[in-house]
Design brief:
Blueprint lengths: L3 H14 L4 H15 L5 H11 L6 H44 L3 H29 L3 H15 L4 H20 L6 H10 L14 H14 L7 H12 L5 H13 L7 H41 L2 H29 L3 H17 L3 H16 L1
Helix pairs in contact: 1-4, 2-4, 3-4, 4-12, 5-11, 5-13, 5-14, 5-15, 6-7, 6-8, 6-13, 7-8, 7-13, 9-12, 10-13, 11-12
Length: 376
């Protein structure tokens, strides 16, 4: 067993220094927990990592929660997760305050001017790597194309995710019974399914509504934290009309600049919409489901992980997540790449990321400096 003080110290440190996205967070946790402290064996660590991929929510945060539970029970579950989230939430909250107070100043505008195109390149790199893993068969590729088509047509993102998972379960059952020739037809159904289309009517702002939206997102979001972009745009820009396209991209940029979970983008949005209360409500709302799912998953995950239909459903959900990421990235790129300077920044960042695997943190910092200098 590990003391709560030791857990808190480790995850406060990780939450303050873990730049670079979920993959980097997981690598840092493995170094600290397996190699340095020997709190878990490599096999145990991999088991927990696999478990996080089968439930919705931010994978690296859920891994921290699993580690805390393994080392100190239910109190450890809460302490490890909260300490990993808290530093990032405080940093993002401070930036959100400065954004609301000074967001129109040349320095702030310049910083975001430089960072936004680099964010697009970072997301494209994530899409490329995840896509090579997720698109394992021709049927999954067809499903991905159908999901992109449905997203462009305005089909609700939750409908796309659930339909994709269901279609892959059906496709697997057909293969089992020797009817795999229908896989293509099943995937195409997604493009014309009578799923709910997101409403475009504006809704008045309220803290309970804000909490509800983020609880929903935290409860259903599979895949990389970058999929969050698609959900945020669908809810806050298109359905509720609480944010502009530019504000959403600013929130995403802040999530890239800061350490810790990408989901603390919710903290930024909450502060912009409702001040300190909004930031607290949004942060609790988006992370609360992760604690609940990790607490419950220990009882059911051993069976789910060995279930072929469950694996097929997860394959479909992952492909749909990538489709949503691709569509929203294309939409956000139009707001980020506005001239030759931003086009050049995006192109250079993409080359450095794809060719030399440069840490995205350094690219974001460099782009911020260039943007500030250009506006100065």
């Amino acid at each position: 067993m590990t003391s709560l003080r030791e857990l808190a110290a480790l995850f406060l440190k990780l939450g303050t220094t873990a730049f670079g996205g979920p993959a980097a967070h997981i690598a840092m946790m493995e170094d600290e927990v397996v190699r340095r402290r020997r709190w878990l064996t490599r096999e145990e660590f991999l088991d927990y990592l696999g478990a996080t991929n089968l439930i919705p929510g931010p994978n690296s945060t859920e891994l921290a929660i699993h580690i805390g539970h393994a080392r100190a029970g239910w109190p450890g579950l809460v302490v490890a997760g909260a300490c990993f989230i808290l530093p990032a939430a405080l940093i993002v909250g401070a930036i959100a305050w400065a954004y609301v107070r000074f967001g129109t100043l040349p320095a702030a505008a310049g910083l975001l001017y430089g960072v936004k195109p680099v964010v697009i390149a970072v997301v494209l790199q994530a899409l490329w790597g995840l896509g090579r893993t997720a698109l394992k068969t021709r049927g999954l590729l067809v499903l991905g194309v159908a999901a992109v088509t449905a997203a462009v047509a305005g089909v609700n993102e939750l409908g796309i995710l659930f339909a994709s998972g269901a279609l892959m379960v059906v496709a697997r059952a057909m293969r089992t019974t020797g009817r795999d020739e229908h896989t293509h037809e099943a995937a195409v159904v997604l493009g014309s399914a009578s799923l709910q289309v997101a409403s475009s009517a504006a809704t008045s702002f309220g803290l309970f509504s804000l909490f509800s939206v983020f609880v929903k997102i935290g409860s259903v979001l599979f895949g990389s934290g970058y999929v969050l972009l698609a959900f945020l745009r669908a809810d806050f820009v298109e359905r509720l009309h609480w944010l502009t396209e530019r504000q959403l991209l600013d929130a995403v940029a802040v999530g890239q600049v800061t350490p810790g979970p990408v989901f603390t983008t919710a903290t930024f949005i909450g502060y912009v919409l409702g001040g300190v209360n909004g930031a607290v409500v949004a942060t609790i709302g988006i992370f609360l489901p992760a604690f609940v799912f990790v607490a419950c998953s220990g009882l059911i995950l051993p069976r789910v992980r060995h279930s072929p239909p469950a694996r097929a459903a997860l394959d479909g959900v992952n492909v749909a997540s990538l489709a949503l990421m691709l569509v929203v990235t294309a939409q956000l790129a139009r707001a980020a790449i506005v001239d030759f300077m931003t086009l050049g920044l995006a192109a250079i960042a993409a080359i450095l990321l794809f060719r030399w695997r440069v840490n995205s943190v350094w690219l974001v910092v460099g782009a911020a400096v260039i943007g500030i200098a250009a506006h100065a």
